[in-house]
Amino acid sequence: MSKKNSILIPGIAAILILVAVQVYVIKDLWVDKDILFDLKYKILSQEAMDQLNRLSRTDGFENALVVLNNYAKETLTDELGRIKSEEELRKLKEEALQGAYKILNELENLSPYLKGYFKRQGSEGDFSRNIEINYLQFLDFDNKLEIYANPAIFRSPNAQNDTLKGKPKSKILVNRFFREDNYYRISFDFYIDFSGKQKMVFRDMAIYLAMSIFSILVVVTILIVTFRNLMEEKRLSNLKTDFINNMTHEIKTPLSTITVAGKTLEIERIRSDENKILETARLIGKQSVHLNQLINLILEISMWERTQFQLDKKEVDIGELMHDIVDSFRTGNNRVVIQEDYSFRGQKIRLDVVYFTTMINNLLSNAVKYSDKDPVIRVEGRENREGIVISITDNGIGIGKQDLKHVFDKFYRVSQGNIHKTKGLGLGLYYVKRIAEAHGGSVTVESKPGEGSTFTITLPK
Ligand code: ADP
Fold first, then answer.
1. How many angstroms is it from 451 CA to the middle of ligand 1?
2. Beta strand 387-393 with 442-448: parallel, antiparallel or unpaired?
3. For 214-260, how does the pLDDT look when each residue is reduced to its tens digit (9 = 90+)?
């Protein structure tokens, strides 16, 4: 398993487990809150009914039940006698049930009282009531005439509505009533149903939901940051390995030349020829110098890393300095065409001449190094309100979009095309950036592969 996957997979697994646990806990909490909600209104209803009973000696169905008694009497005496068939009886029973529903629904006084009571207690009073008849019997004195309406057979209009709405569970049972009078016997349930219940429970849950989403977000963020850091570290370690490989290669060449030269000197035939000895000694000397330079370079790199830049700033005429640097570069590279265009008008600026020269030289030598035709370099300089702007444009191989954002990184080298032919340690542009920043400035690059690149340095006045 790659390092990338070895952190990514457990990380995603951890997040999934966390999300699953949170969902489980929230769901459980939701159910608890839902039950608590029902319980609260059940208790409140009970209190309200007790109060109603104490104050008015009624349960809220007094009127309805008196009317129901008359209705039952009429049905038994007027209608039942006319029944001739089973079918007609069935119809009558259904009518009786609907009639009872109508009376109870229209004449009950319990819901307005409950609404008032809930509001007085500072709770929500916006509910719809629902009556379910469980048992209904119309009967006369000697129990001869009888209508028994079984609600299991005759579905109530309310029950029908409920299934249509699909949420029969949101009802809260307030009380089960059982009553009988001269002409009827009835048992029914009184429910209340809060249309905004889900919203109210959700409001109660909001803080837990927010906390749980927040904790998931925190974990995800930590994971992303860790993952990115790890990838960045991996990239840097790869760059370092490349650097060490390059360096080893560079050191090996002079070292093997010296070894071969040493072996040559052991040969007797050579030792007798003074010229050969001199030639070999020179070769050893030259390679030792090269080796020494490489070792110095490594020492320099570690020094650059450890120490802060100690700039030795002097006031200079930037136009003149630029011209001097470009001129001496031109002398060392006579195949190169360099066009200069400055509009500094004698602008003076404080900078460290040695570091500044290194910076411009690095850019100029890259412009030559990374060129596949005769190099033509354009050096421009101007001043603006913030400071001075120097740009170096070449007609070289250019830099791909992917590499553009990394070219200033330490040890970074573009490793495609024919570039690997050129020697380098991936430090030139890193130093350019560090020097520009040490002067309080910056460096940017624009490039199109195959067309060339423009490096722009901005330094404050
Ligand atoms: P080095 O030249 O030692 O590889 P640098 O830091 O100077 O290191 O450059 C980093 C990389 O940026 C180089 O490997 C090269 O691919 C790319 N690069 C730098 N300058 C140019 C340029 N002028 N044109 C095209 N590519 C460039």
1. 15
2. unpaired
3. 999 998 999 899 989 999 898 888 888 888 888 888 888 889 999 99
Ligand 1 atom nearest to CA at 394 = 23
End-to-end CA distance of the chain: 53
| CB 411 less than 6 A from any atom of ligand 1 | no
Catalogue the E-assigned strands of 112-183: 127-139, 146-149, 171-180
Q: Measure the CA–CA gap between 233 and 188, rounded to whole angstroms.
A: 74
Q: Check if 453 has its Cβ closer than 6 Å to any atom of ligand 1.
A: yes
Q: How far apart are CA 251 and CA 245, in angstroms?
A: 10
Distance CA 197, CA 124 (A): 9
Helix (H, G, I), strand (E, B) or coil at 450: coil
Furthest CA-CA distance within the chain: 152
**CB pairs under 8 A, 24+ apart, for 8-17?**
8/227, 11/223, 11/226, 11/227, 14/219, 14/223, 15/216, 15/219, 15/220, 15/223
Share of the chain above pLDDT 70, in %: 91
Q: Chain-centre distance of CA 332, in angstroms?
A: 54
Nearest Cα to Cα of residue 438 among 312, 309, 338: 309
Considering only CA atoms, which of 99, 109, 91, 94 is closest in space to residue 68?
A: 99
Tell how far the Cα of 37 is from the centroid of ligand 1, in angstroms: 70
pLDDT per position as a tens digit, 362-399: 999 999 999 988 999 999 999 988 889 999 999 999 99
Q: Does the global pTM surpass 0.70?
A: no
Q: Domains in the chain, start-ordered, CATH in brackets? A: 3-206 (no CATH), 314-459 (3.30.565.10)
Assigned token pair, 92: 């009558």
Closest CA to 455 of 446, 321, 97: 446
The answer to whether 164 touches 156, Cβ cutoff 8 Å, is no
> What tens digit of pLDDT does each residue of 261-276 get?
999 888 888 888 889 8
Q: How many residues does the chain have?
A: 461
Closest CA to 390 of 447, 316, 320, 459: 459
